Amino acid sequence: MHMMNDRSFYYIERAVEKKDLTIERVSTGIPKLDELLQGGLPKNSVTLVSGPPGSGKSILCFHFINAGIKNGERCLYISVDQKIESLLIHANAAGFNFLPAIEKGLLKLSHIDLERSGAYHEMGDLVLTGDFDRIVLDSLSPFADTPLVLGRSVEFEKVPVIEKLSSYPSDSRPVIRYHIRKIFDFLHSVNATSMVTSELTEGGSGLSRDTISEFLADGVILLAIDPMMDRRKLTIWKMRGTKHSLRPVDITITERGIEIK
Ligand SMILES: Nc1ncnc2c1ncn2[C@@H]1O[C@H](COP(=O)(O)OP(=O)(O)O)[C@@H](O)[C@H]1O
Ligand SMILES: [Mg+2]
Fold first, then answer.
1. Beta strands per DSSP E along 18-90
2. Of these four, 16, 130, 147, 239, which has the most CB atoms within 10 Å of its CB?
């Protein structure tokens, strides 16, 4: 409850500070997707990109990062599953050579190993200390799957809910939900526009692995594979402040990335 209130106040303060309530748009890097989104993602929003393995989540994030680089924006890509080198190779195969941007200091690529202690704080520090325009967290799912140690940090001790949480096992629903909420808070508290990916498993319910991200995110883009028809689809499921169709559109993935037909 406390967290919710703090956050609402934060938004109100920021809106008042801004004095202009119109939504600025940030390009997704895919022109046709921008058209479907009234110009792009709302600035400072957090969008959940959800889909099964191989559906194009990382490639959609590459487009988003690439658009930022082309604009001279500062970008952060946090890779949780994939090591940096493999991510760079994979991006290059989909049409994105990120090496020049890394050399120019426009893109920071960070691999976070959740098995390491302190990984959770490492992520928080990365997000909070850099002055990024665009942030990708790829993916959120391991945070929901790996029991994480709570406590120790001063920041955590300030949050009253934590005391109650410490009586739950670290892989229980309330603890996982707390962590996911905390990650969305991190991303909402900085001045960046973000994309967060979530792996959907076959037969799983909800729009994310953890089934809470879809409520915390400002937008949900769903990617799907139809193996029988040899087809891929993209659906804008939710986007705050945006008039959009709910109809899935056909997409292809080539050496030039994602194309909307
Ligand atoms: N150069 C390419 N040409 C055609 N398809 C590609 C190419 N690169 C990647 N793909 C397709 O994209 C898929 C990987 O997309 P990715 O964004 O990594 O998925 P996810 O992150 O959802 O697991 C591969 O399984 C492959 O089908
Ligand atoms: Mg991926």
1. 25-26, 41-42, 46-51, 75-79
2. 239
